[in-house]
Amino acid sequence: MNSFVNKIISALAVAAVSVFASVDPEMEGLEVVSRDDGTFLMGSPTFYFDRTLGAGGIHSESELWTPRKLHYRLLFNRMSVLPSWNPIETPSVWMKTGNELGDLIYQDFLTEVESRPDNRTPILEGGFRTPMIHGFWATGRLFQDDHYGAGRGYRISKTKKSFSHFGENWPLFSSAYGGLGYTNDFVNASVLAGMEYIWLFTETSRWIPVLYKPRVEARADFWNFSTTLVYENAEYRDDGKKELGERHEVNGSFVYTCGEKCKQGMLQLSAGLAFRFVDDDGVVYTELKDDRVLWPFLEMRFKPMNQLKFDVMFGVNDRDWLVQDSLEYQVPAFEKMNVTVGFKNIAGTRLNPIADTREFFDGDTVSLTANGHMNLLQGYVGIEDTLTNFLGVGVRGSFWAEYGAETFDVKEFVDDGENYTARHGDVGRINSWIKGVTGELWLNLWYKEMFKFTALTGFERIDGNQKRFEVNPAEFFVAFNADWLIKRSFRISHSIRYRSDAEWNLRSRDPLVVKGDWFWDVTFEQRFPKYAISLAGTLVQVLGKEVVETPNGGYSRFRFVCTAKKAF
Fold it and tell me: For 34, left (φ over 0), alpha (ψ -120 to 50), or beta?
């Protein structure tokens, strides 16, 4: 697909800078905090609902497995960039810290101990990547983020001992790793090993603490092959119930991608195998059927002409199948106008075929698979036009229909401590048609590399059995983004936007309405090119109210993050 469609349907871009917003994220994977083009509801750094308007369907993007997510982390049943173990590419050393602004550091000096507010969940990070010596390099990183971390008492009840590398907040994740790598013109390989504390949010709406001790990840890209191999020794615990269990897991992938000469031809092929093997002992709260999953898949692009291409991905094993295909045609038009007409289809038995198949909760077995299959059909038309050397406009419209969408059939709600609510039931399907229509419009202004401005808006109207939707997403948004680069050394990037109401239906006894609100994020960065040093500060959610965006989630609050980096 062309660059425009990629921006619309790609909900988890790893890059921190895009044409729509270049406000620095707190960490890679948390770009969802400042996304302007849809519904992004945060429960913690390790759980969020990410869905762009126009993506089609009612599922969160991270629930859907795709080959491009092979390096993403599987957090329960979601493919997530965070916590990222992608080695930083640039040889450098860096530090990052931040805090929710309700707990200014100077309060330690201005208030008595008994009157101080609780610590407002800081972010901490430090790391390095050495220059290459004969192709070899080393890296290390410690990072943790406890934003959205209300409910500390709940977490302490699950893990009596300290559950992080640093501090006493019981953050939602705390990760540390180190390793070695080798890079040349033909090979890029690395081996990382470390320890990680993480909280997983399950289908029953419980937070489960997991300690990976150790976690080892090896990657190698050579010629047309890519391989990943991960070993995880995961310890599950609930000190309140005196439960303890371990999971030994090996997972990874092997992928072949056609070479450069093949990519210039009419037919392009790639194939791969994703796999998981687990060995559980004691009380582990989920199960993978037969303790293994093998997921072979094939990708194909057929391009009979430059303006027309057909993409398909097909995966199948003894339990599931999944097909994702698209047809796109770039209509010949005026010299600077790009007109795109496309169609896409997603069909399969599961959105994520490599995820666990059952969950256990208070003697109940929760099925994470549903009978039958889903089918999502979508057609779209997009137009981009560069009117002048400094002005561009674009518009996109789409219609989609989905049958058999995954949902959760709730049997009953129960209390899970600290005013949290869990649920019993099974994953099911909405065996009726859900239909949606979307429209998006944007305007770009720029002046060389000094200034860039984007205004964009979009709406979506969905019809169907909305009481069975996990989330009724926002119906419309509007956003304004501007970036200044002054004398190539000082950058100001900001985004101001409005998102309409969204609603969670099935995670609590009463629907949770997340009221629409204005948000403003801004980054100031000073660069010192002579010394290869950069200093950046980011304010997140300056205007937004302090609200809980997901059931059993923490508060989304105004916060500040600063970064210092020295490149080699």
Answer: alpha
Structure tokens at 546: 């302090």
CA distance 482 to 98: 23
pLDDT digits (tens, 9 = 90+) for 407-424: 999 999 999 888 899 999
Mean pLDDT value across residues 15-28: 62
Q: What is the CATH code of the structural domain delimited by 1-567?
A: 2.40.170.20
Can you list the pairs that 415-420 forms with residues at least 24 positions away whose Cβ atoms lie under 8 Å?
Answer: 416/205, 416/206, 416/552, 417/154, 417/157, 417/240, 418/151, 418/153, 418/154, 418/157, 420/151, 420/154, 420/205, 420/206, 420/207, 420/552
Strands (E), 118-224: 123-129, 136-145, 173-183, 187-201, 207-222
Q: Per DSSP, what are the bridge partners of residue 228?
A: 219, 253
Amino acid sitting at position 388? T
φ, ψ at 6 (rounded to 5°) = -60, -40
pLDDT digits 0-9 by tens, 316-345: 999 999 999 999 999 987 777 899 999 999
| Residue 273 identity (one-letter amino acid) | L
What pLDDT is stored for residue 332 in this prediction? 84
Tokens of 48: 């969020």
Give the start-to-end residue ranges of the domains of the chain. Answer: 1-567
> Is pLDDT larger for residue 168 or for residue 180?
180
Amino acid at site 123: I
Distance between CA 433 and CA 463 in Å, rounded?
9
In eight-state DSSP terms, residue 115 is G
What are the tokens at 222? 């050579």
Which amino acid makes up residue 421?
A: T
DSSP category for residue 133: B
Region of residue 89 (left: phi > 0; alpha: psi -120 to 50; beta: else): alpha
Alpha-carbon gap, residue 263 to 165, rounded angstroms: 45
Among residues 71, 77, 352, the alpha carbon closest in space to that of 230 is found at 71
When mean pLDDT is compared across 11-15, 188-192, 509-513, the lowest value belongs to: 11-15
- 193 and 215 in contact (C-beta within 8 Å)? yes
Residues in the chain: 568
Structure confidence by residue, pLDDT tens digits, 237-260:
999 899 999 999 999 999 999 887
| Residue 218 pLDDT > 60 | yes
* HSE-up of residue 143 (Cα within 13 Å, Cβ side): 23
Residue bearing the bigger pLDDT, 512 or 265: 512
What are the tens digits of pLDDT across the range 355-380?
A: 999 999 999 999 999 999 999 999 99
Flag whether pLDDT at 20 surpasses 60: no
Tell me 466's DSSP state. G
8 A C-beta contact, residue 549 and residue 514: yes
DSSP letter at 274?
Answer: E
Contact 314, 323 (CB under 8 A): yes
Q: Give the pLDDT confidence score for residue 261 in this predicted structure.
A: 79
- Signed CA dihedral, 427, 46, 275, 302: sign only: positive
Of 199, 107, 113, which Cα lies nearest the Cα of 149?
199
